[in-house]
Amino acid sequence: MRKRETTATKSSEVNAVSGSSEGNEAAEVKRHRKRVQRRAAKLKAEADAKLPQKLSPTPSHRLWGFAAFVIVLSASAGGLVVWQEHVESARMRLDEYLEPFTRDMNIPQLNTTMLNEHVTYVKDYFAPEDVRPGKDLRIEGYVPKHPIIIVPGFVTSGLELWQGKDCSDGNFRNKIWGSANMGLQFTLHTNCWLEHLSLDPETGMDPPGIKLRAALGLEAVDYFVPGYLVWAKLIEALGDMGYDSNMLATETYDWRLSTPNMEKRDAYFTRLRVRIELTHSIGGIKVVVVSHSWGDNVFRNFLHWVEQDDPDWAEKHIHAYANIAGPVLGVPKSISALLSGESRDTADLGWISRILSDRFIPRKARTSLFRSWGSSIGMLPVGGPGIWGNHTWSPEDTPKMQKDGVSYGPMIIYREVDEEATERENNASIISRVHSLIPKYMGGPSDQGLHLLTNETVMLNVDETMELLIEAGGPNFKKHVQSWGAIHADPCSERGDKGSAKRYFFNPLKCPLPKAPSLAIYCMYGVGSPVERSFRYLKMTTPKAKEQAKSHPEDVDNEKTGWTINRDEHTPDTGVDTGILVSDGDGTVPLISTGLMCKHPQGWRGKRLNPHGVRIASREYQHEPTAAFKGYRGGPKASTHVEILANALLMTDILKIAAGEVLDDSIISDIDGLAARIDLEADLRTDEPATC
Question: Which residue ranges have biased composition labelled Basic and acidic residues (predicted)?
Answer without folding.
Answer: 545-572
